[in-house]
TrEMBL record, chain B:
The lineage of its organism: Bacteria, Pseudomonadati, Pseudomonadota, Alphaproteobacteria, Acetobacterales. Signal peptide: none annotated. It comes from the Bacteria. Residues 2-117 form the Response regulatory domain. The modification 4-aspartylphosphate is found at D51. Residues 127-225 bind DNA. InterPro entries: CheY-like_superfamily, OmpR/PhoB-type_DNA-bd, Sig_transdc_resp-reg_receiver, WalR-like, WH-like_DNA-bd_sf. Residues 127-225 form the OmpR/PhoB-type domain. This is Response regulator transcription factor. Keywords: DNA-binding, Phosphoprotein. Pfam families: Response_reg (PF00072), Trans_reg_C (PF00486). It comes from Acetobacter farinalis. CDD domains: trans_reg_C.
């Protein structure tokens, strides 16, 4: 029987027999594998049962023949005749066959009347039909040549066994046909499932390539591999749309926020060119315009910096260092500024804090936070910088230690809606518009903190604001001792 | 001073050259790398100003590396539109002495050029004490005196004063102070430097009537008698 085409019963569709179709190949492989394995399996069963039965009959006949030879050697034809008669007498089931003839073919002993004509060769297996009482039976026989032209025929009735064997063969064959049908059906099903999955993926991705970024892969909540694929794709899409939002945000921001200083510079220059009276006025206008252009440069630089940090390229500059002196340097720089603004600056830092990251960047992040705290605080407030190591129980994402660094002020604070948007590029709250700045400070902090796999959180302080950085620390045993010392 | 300026942008080149000539320097100009390299190797200059990116295959870094390969130690200041920290590091590694990113203010460039030349001269003899007028600092004992009177300074204030003293009579920009005194290579947003300089003034100028630290408009500071 040849292998059936597993795809045969599937309803025809365009390109159905296209072997480049993955689903068809998948189904074919599935079907062939199924059918091959059942062929193997059934052959094994057949050999283990029907084949074995037959083999045992042959063994019994051979053993019998050896016993009868011995008798012949010891006591010649009379002994053998007696032995055969004896055996036939004991055989109640009547399923043995014996026949001993002399060299003329004349009957000497046994339960067969004459030498069957089919048996022409010695030492060869024959299936011999025998007429017994009223039934036609089948026997397995073998002829042996004896000295002086005597010949001996030994056989066993195998009609019962033949029946069993036929039944077995039939059953296995039918079972196999059914299994083949199942394989075909299964292959079809596999193909449909496969097509379904592939089509959902390709439909979604196609929609996305045509610009519909809101499309997402369906997740069935079954937590299987398909869900995993869908989730991975969805995550990828989320990240892409976040990035696209970022790009859009930045280009909008460039269009708006960069225009402002450029417009101002242009207006100042044009006004001066038309109306300035005397050199002093001209110079003043030009200086202001240069200031505005410097502002544009600063914005560009900050944007580039954020983009560069977000691309993750700076991770290669990570080193192990003690954070405390680095923080103290920043504090030293800003303490004077705080005092100048009439603010009290306090810090609570541990003696040492081994840290893995980019020193200059991290200093920049802290500097930006301090800058905000000072900028958005009225005089007589307190600005506090504190750092501590938090031990997580149980560990989160394999990290058991966190650096928690916070800058708290008693300034104007922010409302919840503004807090949620504070890290957007160019975002400045309404009350902040009168202070200098371009709204990139926290965006840069956020990028730096994310580069260090940490988080930036804003929380209200009554009054004021607390900005808090949480950054995972490498495990203690990974630190070279000289850094801790 | 004889200065070589290699810069391809005509406007920027004229702007720098005019400014430097007005400040009394002799400026040779080259508009591409080949010309610049030829001038730099054949003639003697006090400072070379090199644009990092130049058309025509020979860029600033290439010129710099060739010069250094020939054992030429003329101070080189790199100009670049690449503000990246890594770019800066690469430029300094190739043998550059300073790095200014575009766009820049002329006063920044001028201050840095003068600092470079000064540094080159000073390196010859290590000093242990610096004096400007009646202000005197002892670099070994870390002591400061003005008009014979001892002044107590914080370590960072001392370093700020030392930096100003080393560049006495020269304009020092805020970025130079930030890099030279605090070793910061980022924009601190607010005018932190002004605050620190004003604190220093409280200690070394205010009690003595006559100021030594001067603010230079649109540029920075200068310590001068
Ligand atoms: N400590 C704070 N207290 C009150 N509001 C704050 C504080 N920090 C940030 N904000 C708000 O978040 C906005 C964004 O802060 P961010 O640091 O990004 O910008 P900026 O300080 O206005 O400008 P830049 O940092 O670029 O000079 C601020 O404009 C302000 O409205
Ligand atoms: Mg800010």
């Amino acid at each position: 029987m040849s292998l059936p085409d597993a795809s045969a019963p599937v309803s025809p569709s365009p390109g159905f027999f296209n072997l480049r179709s993955v689903s068809l190949r998948f189904a074919l492989v599935y079907g062939s594998l199924f059918i091959c394995s059942t062929v193997l399996f059934f052959s094994f069963i057949w050999w283990g049962t029907a084949g074995l039965l037959e083999h045992r009959v042959e063994l019994a006949i051979s053993a019998d023949s050896r016993a009868l030879f011995n008798v012949w050697e010891e006591s010649g034809p009379p002994g053998l005749t007696m032995m055969i008669d004896d055996r036939l007498e004991q055989d109640v089931d009547d399923n043995t066959l014996y026949l001993l003839v002399n060299k003329d073919g004349k009957w000497i002993a046994g339960n067969l009347a004459e030498w069957p004509r089919q048996i022409t060769r010695n030492h060869h297996w024959f299936n011999l039909p025998v007429q017994r009482a009223y039934t036609q039976d089948l026997a397995k026989v073998r002829a042996y040549g004896l000295p002086d032209g005597y010949r001996l025929l030994i056989g066993r009735d195998i009609s019962g066994r033949t029946l069993l064997r036929k039944m077995l063969t039939d059953t296995l064959l039918w079972a196999w046909i059914m299994i083949a049908l199942l394989a075909i059906g299964g292959g079809w099903l596999v193909r449909r499932l496969f097509q379904h999955v592939i089509h959902t993926i390709s439909r979604t991705t196609l929609a996305i390539t045509h610009g519909d970024m809101s499309q997402r892969m369906p997740v069935h909540g079954t937590d299987d591999e398909l869900d995993a694929v869908s989730k991975a794709i969805n995550e990828m899409l989320d990240r892409i749309s976040r990035l696209m939002d970022g790009v859009r945000q930045v280009s909008n921001a460039i269009a708006h926020d960069m225009r402002t200083p450029v417009t101002r510079a242009r207006a100042q220059l044009e006004y001066a060119a038309l109306h300035a009276k005397g050199e002093a006025a001209l110079r003043a206008a030009i200086e202001q315009a240069v200031g505005n252009l410097d502002n544009v440069t600063a914005i560009c630089e900050a944007l580039l910096r954020i983009a560069q940090i977000e691309s993750g390229a700076r991770r290669s500059a990570f080193v192990l260092f003690d954070l405390i002196p680095a923080l103290q340097d920043v504090c030293e720089l800003y303490e004077a500024v705080a005092e100048e603004h009439g603010l009290t600056f306090t810090q609570s830092l541990p003696a040492s804090l081994p840290f893995f990251g980019d020193r200059a960047m991290f200093q920049q992040a802290v500097a930006n936070l301090l800058d905000n705290a000072i900028k958005f605080s009225p005089p007589r407030g307190t600005v506090t910088l504190s750092a501590e190591i938090v031990t997580l129980e149980p560990p989160l994402d394999g990290r058991s230690r966190l650096l928690r660094l916070s800058v708290a002020d008693e300034g104007i604070g922010m409302n919840d809606a503004d807090m949620a948007r504070a890290t957007e590029r160019f975002f400045r709250a309404e009350q902040a518009r009168s202070t200098p700045g371009s709204g990139l400070g926290l965006a840069l902090v956020q990028a730096i903190v994310q580069l260090h796999e940490g988080q930036l959180q804003l929380a209200p302080n009554t009054p004021g604001l607390i900005t808090c950085l949480e950054v995972p620390l490498p495990d203690e045993e990974n630190f070279p001792t000289e850094v801790i010392a | 001073m004889r200065i070589l300026l290699v810069e391809d942008d005509q406007t920027v080149r004229t702007f720098i050259a005019k400014g430097l000539s007005e400040a009394g320097h002799l400026v040779e100009q080259a508009e591409n790398g080949k010309e610049g390299l030829a001038l730099a190797t054949n003639e003697k200059f006090d400072v070379v100003i090199l644009d990092r990116m130049l058309p025509g295959g020979v860029d600033g870094i290439h010129i710099l590396e060739t010069l250094r390969g020939q054992g030429n130690v003329t101070p080189v200041l790199l100009l670049s539109a690449l503000a990246d920290v890594d770019e800066k590091v690469a430029g300094l590694k190739a043998g550059g002495d300073d790095y200014v990113t575009k766009p820049f203010s002329f006063s920044e460039l001028q201050a840095r050029i003068e600092a470079l030349v000064r540094r080159n001269r000073n390196e010859a003899q290590p000093q242990t004490r610096l004096m400007v007028g009646d202000l005197e600092i002892d670099l070994l004992a870390r002591g400061v005196k003005r008009a014979g009177q001892k002044i107590d300074l914080q370590p960072r204030e001392f370093r700020l004063l030392e930096f100003l003293m080393r560049h006495a009579g020269q304009v020092v920009t805020r970025t130079m102070l930030l890099e030279g005194v605090w070793d910061y290579h980022f924009d601190p947003q607010t005018n932190v430097i002004d605050v620190h300089v004003s604190r220093l003034r409280q200690k070394i100028d205010k009690p003595f009537g006559r100021p030594l630290v001067h603010t230079i408009r649109n540029a920075g500071y200068m310590l001068q008698e």
